[in-house]
């Protein structure tokens, strides 16, 4: 009950700030021919690893078709190397999670003149609107059709489409037709060699139980049930339980409790690149709704995704792969999403197919 109250209070606060932001800062962009764009800025300061992977092809395909365009990105510091070294972005502007208005003003001054800004947030907050106003770009492309600042409106035009298709639509408006939507997945041979030191000489299914928030995390009972099903349908295969630095101890304990040598974890795994190399070496993947799903899709791995029953989220973030199956969970007794309440019979059928 208390959590719901807090959520409602935060929603009311955000709605008020958005309305105020529209009154103070929402002014129509000048507009211009997208065929004449020479400098493009993509705002991705709220992007996560999975979001970045899903949009990765955008940079490659734009570079191939429009090498005349300078492509800059605003993102979090921990993603800077991904965009610079693997996606081929010309310039990175790093932004902390909650910048002040003064910091946004300073950043916009440092960025200078831009022909097109792309910001694919659905409902932009007051600080987003303020920043776009400070940039004073010729064109602003986005999903927030309500804003006058957004003169290239993608909201209704791409409603219900997978997020990768929204980026493909943006490419089409820039004159890039029929793009290759294969994701760019970073590769690191040194990290792979570290993983290989702990890798068994048997087929492996990678199992990732951890998503964003408690509603997307599998508990031990769910993990144990999945490992048991894998053992039944794929005898001789092993399960690699994936972990994050803060869940490593828990996963090692789970491997010990599962017994029989059926499950193991890569103790050397510390970074997202280690997770990528684990997926690259695996024969199949099972994961809750998180970045691992999109990485596995980009690697064309047979995949079982476990999702909360949220039609809107699924339509935009489902595994973009012909090698995937998905099962959905129901809400728990408190009426809250809980990924552990998935359909076991469906999971069993899909594990047999994997």
TrEMBL record:
Q: Glycosyltransferase: is it a keyword of this entry?
A: yes
Q: What is this protein called?
A: Glycosyltransferase family 9 protein
Query: Which PANTHER family does UniProt cross-reference here?
Result: GLYCOSYLTRANSFERASE HI_0523-RELATED (PTHR30160:SF15), TETRAACYLDISACCHARIDE 4'-KINASE-RELATED (PTHR30160)
UniProt source species: Oceanimonas smirnovii
Transferase as UniProt keyword:
yes
Report keywords, A-Z: Glycosyltransferase, Transferase
- Lineage, top ranks: Bacteria, Pseudomonadati, Pseudomonadota, Gammaproteobacteria, Aeromonadales
Q: Which InterPro entries match?
A: Glyco_trans_9, LPS_LOS_Heptosyltrfase
Annotated Pfam families? Glyco_transf_9
């Amino acid at each position: 009950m208390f959590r719901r109250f807090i959520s409602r209070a935060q929603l009311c606060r955000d709605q008020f700030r958005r309305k105020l932001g529209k009154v103070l800062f929402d002014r129509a962009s000048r507009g211009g021919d997208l065929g004449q764009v020479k400098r493009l800025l993509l705002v991705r300061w709220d992007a996560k690893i999975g979001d970045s992977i899903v949009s990765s092809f955008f940079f490659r395909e734009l570079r191939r078709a429009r090498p005349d365009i300078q492509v800059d990105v605003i993102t979090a510091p921990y993603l800077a190397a991904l965009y610079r070294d693997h996606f081929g972005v010309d310039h990175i502007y790093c932004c902390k999670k909650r910048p002040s208005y003064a910091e946004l003003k300073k950043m916009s001054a440092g960025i200078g003149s831009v022909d097109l800004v792309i910001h694919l947030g659905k409902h932009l907050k007051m600080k987003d609107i303020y920043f776009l106003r400070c940039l004073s770009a010729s064109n602003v492309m986005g999903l927030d059709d309500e804003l006058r600042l957004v003169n290239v409106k993608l909201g209704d035009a791409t409603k219900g489409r997978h997020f990768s298709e929204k980026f493909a639509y943006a490419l089409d408006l820039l004159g890039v037709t029929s793009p290759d939507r294969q994701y760019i997945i970073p590769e690191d041979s040194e990290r792979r060699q570290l993983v290989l030191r702990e890798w068994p000489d048997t087929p492996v299914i990678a199992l990732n139980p951890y998503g964003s928030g408690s509603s997307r995390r599998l508990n031990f009972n769910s993990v144990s049930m999945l490992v048991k099903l894998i053992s039944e349908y794929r005898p001789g295969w092993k399960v690699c339980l994936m972990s994050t630095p803060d869940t490593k101890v828990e996963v090692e304990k789970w491997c010990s409790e599962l017994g029989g040598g059926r499950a193991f974890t890569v103790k050397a795994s510390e970074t997202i690149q280690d997770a990528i190399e684990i997926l690259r070496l695996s024969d199949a993947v099972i994961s809750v709704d998180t970045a691992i799903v999109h990485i596995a899709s980009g690697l064309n791995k047979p995949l079982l995704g476990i999702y909360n029953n949220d039609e809107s989220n699924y339509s935009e973030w489902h595994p973009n792969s012909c090698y995937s199956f998905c099962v959905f969970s129901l809400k728990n007794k408190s009426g809250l999403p809980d990924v552990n309440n998935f359909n076991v019979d469906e999971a069993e059928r899909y594990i047999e197919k994997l």
